[in-house]
Amino acid sequence: MTRRDQPRAAIGGVWPLVISATSLLIAVGSFVYTMRTFAITQRPYVGVMRVIWVTEQAGTPAWRFIVKNTG
């Protein structure tokens, strides 16, 4: 049986479902991508304002970072 002999309803009935499922998959993927982008952009940004080399009272040297919320 060739393609020409197959009923037209059987051939045409599958493609709309495939196209719809593909569109739904792309839409859901775009929604998830947008959600994650929004979540990342709402985080505060912390900037290092100054770095100081200090010696603590016990005599252990350490770095001290002065940070500021810049977001």
Provide tags for this entry.
71 residues; alpha+beta; 45% helix; rod-shaped
Walk me through the structure.
The termini are far apart. This protein is an alpha+beta fold and 71 residues long. The longest helix is centred in the middle third of the chain and has 27 residues, at 15-41. It has one domain (7-69). The protein has 2 helices and 2 strands. The protein has helices at 8-12, 15-41; strands at residues 46-55, 61-69. Strand 1 (46-55) and strand 2 (61-69) form a beta hairpin. The mean pLDDT is 81. It has a two-stranded antiparallel ribbon with strand order 1-2.
Question: In summary, what is this structure?
Answer:
The protein has 71 residues and is of the alpha+beta class. The chain has helices spanning 8-12, 15-41, and strands spanning 46-55, 61-69.
Count of helical segments? 2
State the end-to-end distance.
Answer: 67 Å
Structural class: alpha+beta
Tell me, briefly, the overall form.
rod-shaped
Largest sheet: 2 strands, antiparallel
Number of domains: 1
- β-sheet strand percentage: 25-35%
Q: What is the N-to-C order of secondary-structure elements (H for helix, E for strand)?
A: HHEE
Q: Total strand count, please?
A: 2
Strand order of the largest sheet: 1-2
Radius of gyration: 30 Å
Mean pLDDT across residues: 81
Low-confidence stretches: none
Helix and strand arrangement:
Layout: H1 8-12, H2 15-41, E1 46-55, E2 61-69
Antiparallel strand pairs: 1-2
